[in-house]
Records
---
Amino acid sequence: MDFKKFLPWIIAAVLIIGIYSWASGIYNKAVTLEQDVKESWGNVNTAYQRRNDLIPNIVNTVKGYAEHEKSTLTAVIEARAKATAITIDPTKVTPEQLAAFNSAQSGVSSSLSKLLVSVEQYPNLKADASFMKLQDELASTENQILTARTRFNEAVKPYNNNINTFPRNILARMYGLKEKPYFEATVGSDKAPEVKF
């Protein structure tokens, strides 16, 4: 049997299998990293959901003590409603969507901060055990949000590196894979807040 006439076919088969393995490996790596991004995004949403679940309890507790703070309470409720209305698919997230989500969540943080500052006027509320517990839970939740956002950014980085390095970037474009945005600080957060009493 003459192997020389089969040699071109063997070389072609080896090349095809090699290219297929290489290309599918790049795609599979991107899919795995994208799943990490999705998981991280789910954790971000879970942390924000925990905060959103605490808000009605905080508002109801403050209502009982602070009748004069209706506008502040309304602002908290409206900010929460606006924030929960924004949903993002982590596989198709754009920088604009993430900025809108971040802005809405900043509105919740801002209105909650105003509410907690107004509580200083009500010594009985500050001493209330259930309010103190809610305030502690809120502080813990804010730390969880920070951690979840940091981990989201940590999951985005290897995904973006994977699809932006040569020659993976060529195949990533063929597969329709796009770079994912990072969470960034909200505008003005680099300045210390002014505290007025």
---
Amino acid sequence: NPTSPANTCLNMSKTITIVCAASDSYAPYCGVMLTSLFSSNRNHQIECFILSGDMRKDSRQRFSQLAEQFGQKITVVDIDKEIFSKLPIGKRFSNISYEAYFRLLMPSLLSDRDRALYLDCDMIIKTDLAELWNTNLEGYALAAVQDTLRMRKKCISRLGFGANDGYFHSGMGLYNLQFLRQFEFEKK
């Protein structure tokens, strides 16, 4: 089990790398999530990357002020939505936006990092993330949790997956970027 306490290890990086994706209309929610993250993790250096296809200048300024207020780092990374124009959005995939696909670019966008913690913008962080951050990922692409049984059944059916196919909650995941690069994840 990659998430058991016996399999935790100290990560070489002292900085926790957070990735989230947000359209400009989700910037306020992202700001609330980041405020809760910074408030609950004051003893850690955090570097946050917000992947966006349309972040306005005033939203970027608010994120700069938030980072300065907590002594942390926030970078808005511009993503061209056209990269994902052929992927499913709408109909059966009505809950998937372009921003949901942006995390797929993390291995190349963060090419100098071994791992990143992806967090959806609709979360409130109430605890220290060190234990999660230090989860041993050796041999695994990511650490994630299964979605609720009700949601798994609903989503597996809606997406046309088999009954035995896995399904995890995509709103939070600790990604092994080094593993994903070696696996040529983005190409596949």
---
Amino acid sequence: MTLREQSHTSKQKVTQNYWLTIFHLVKPQLSKLLLKTLIVACIYAVTAKLSLEFATLPGKVTAVWFPSGLTFAFVTWFGLRALPGIALGSISFMVWNSLTMPLSWPVSSDIVAIVACSLANSLQPVIGVGIIHRLTHSPPSLDHMKTVISFVVAATIAPMLPAFIGITTSALVGIVPWSSYGISWFAWWSAGMAAILVFTPTLLFWPQADVSVRSQVYKEVIGILGTTLSLCWLIFGQGYPVEYMLLLVLIWSGLRLGSFMASALVSLIAVIAIVSTAHGFGVFTESSITHSLVILQSFIAVCSVSSLVLGGALKAQKAVELSLGKTLLSLEQQVSDRTTQLRESQAILDGFFSVAPVGLGIVDRDLRY
């Protein structure tokens, strides 16, 4: 083997070792990313299938879209790395749904709608999280009033553009008739907004679940849960118009059990209310299922926003109290330090007088002793 061939062979080995090293370094990260993508896609597809049970408008536009609340939390936790899972779950669900249901429009139209809807579903959480970053210059959180207000604004604005993309594309290819464009767009927008307001806070507060529950008496937790279920049975099972009593329970839970439990109660109430109303039970039932669910969405959105504002106000109050407590401790420490210094100065002065070889005294400018 010539010197040139040996040099070429050594370069090949170095290159192979370099790529093997990179592969071993990147492999765990790729495995985690792939696992996250599959988990997000599966969760999206399952919740989308559940949401389709409430589709009452042309083009399978549903009045409740559970994945919106989940994707907002996924993008908050994982950033843009959650988008492949969201897109994969959206495409998988719509392809499966197209294959299992008879179509009244061309396959090409369905493909265009699948691509447009997947893009819209992926854009929605990115827009929402981007709005919060823009308003607060921090990741989404619900720690004080400013972050709560920014979250409500983001939940309201984020579904607008995706709803426009999805409904306009569906109308252009003939899936959604132009005559129902307005109500279809409103249903898409309100479905996404309500899901974000109702389900996303529960997921964002999830890390606080253990702290919130351990610090409370379990009897009180059971009492609040029992009261909530009893009111839901009266409102959505028997049709008694006492739905706003649920706000009192939410205020009670927010004051006593913290933000996570209040958000979890809102999610529980929303699930019970949506299922009952969709099956024709409860005080929100009207002649049109779509109108019933839209009115119901406004109610649960008010419940969610109320609990979030209460939680933000309580956390702001606790932050002020903590700041005042720290200030008082600092002042007490300063007073204690100053008192110690004065005592030391007095001790030094007393010692100086006691050992002085001559008589000494202190007089003021008027020669008073």
